[in-house]
Specification:
This protein has a five-stranded mixed β-sheet. A two-stranded antiparallel ribbon has the order 1-7. The longest helix has 12 residues. The chain has 167 residues and is mainly beta. It is built from two helices and seven strands; from the N terminus they run βββββββαα.
Length: 167
């Protein structure tokens, strides 16, 4: 998918551009191409981005460390504000309080929207933080091998020296 020039959206009917997605996203390892639809609408001072997509990824279970396939589905929408100062360097202090209303995505009104980057970020956010192959996964089996105590060979020389000491 190519970058979309934001002013170009104003020339389209209803200021809307719809992209059918059927490709692999760079940087995201998937078993199947990402399939779905992305809709980008210019609303004057913001872009409305809607996406429905899915793919299959391979994850590693946090309990048993086995790999399993997971269907990754998206049904998201986001407002991207158009602001002239979006690409300006931040010259403020290194530490400062960030207000809740400052936590928004912004782009310059005459800039480009990168659908691949946006889709990659949304798919990464959709990956479950707790990765379990099954809700009843028992984890790694631990054998109850208490018959032979574990000895570290590196301590054998110290044990021999300890045996030579009087008392």
């Amino acid at each position: 998918m190519e970058a979309i020039y934001i002013p170009f959206l104003l020339k389209l009917p209803e200021h809307t551009h719809i992209i059918d997605i059927n490709e692999c996203i760079e940087g995201l390892e998937t078993l199947t191409p990402v399939r779905g639809r992305l809709q980008l609408t210019h609303q004057g001072n913001y872009l409305e981005v809607l996406a429905k997509a899915e793919t299959i990824i391979t994850l590693t279970c946090d309990r048993c460390l086995q790999q399993y396939n997971h269907r990754l589905s998206l049904d998201v929408s986001e407002l991207v504000w158009l602001d002239e100062s979006a690409n300006q360097p931040d010259t403020g202090p290194l530490e400062r309080e960030t207000l809740l209303e400052d936590l928004v995505e912004t782009l310059p009104p005459d800039g480009h929207f990168e659908p691949n980057t946006w889709l990659y970020e949304q798919l990464c956010l959709a990956i479950p933080p707790r990765q379990l192959c099954d809700s009843n996964c028992p984890g790694i089996p631990i054998s109850d091998n208490t018959t032979t105590p574990y000895t570290d060979r590196r301590w054998q020389a110290l044990e021999a020296l300890k045996g030579q000491l009087p008392g």
